[in-house]
Design goal:
alpha+beta; Multidrug-efflux Transporter Regulator, Chain: A, Domain 2; three-stranded antiparallel sheet; 3 strands; 65% helix
Length: 80
């Protein structure tokens, strides 16, 4: 399933500039069709997870991205 940029902005409570920044960093990959940008459900849920760690734990974008992309690796490293 694909969502418009406006849907992501509204659903995740972020600004257009923030979404553009996430796209520039390669966190989300928009697909442009007929002059509109669309994002996959994977983009939506991945970005939702990243924003969760940024907002609740104060993580940087990079650290939040690591937690979302490699949850098992970081959890086992924290136990050592």
């Amino acid at each position: 399933m694909y969502f418009t940029a406006e849907h992501l902005i509204s659903k995740l409570q972020i600004s257009e500039e923030q979404l553009q920044d996430f796209e520039a960093r390669g966190i989300v990959l928009g697909i442009t069709k007929a002059g509109r940008t669309f994002y996959s459900s994977r983009d939506l849920y991945r970005l939702k997870g990243i924003l969760f760690f940024m907002r609740t734990r104060g993580f940087s974008v990079e650290r939040a991205r690591e937690y979302v992309d490699k949850p098992g690796v970081l959890a086992s490293a924290a136990q050592d």
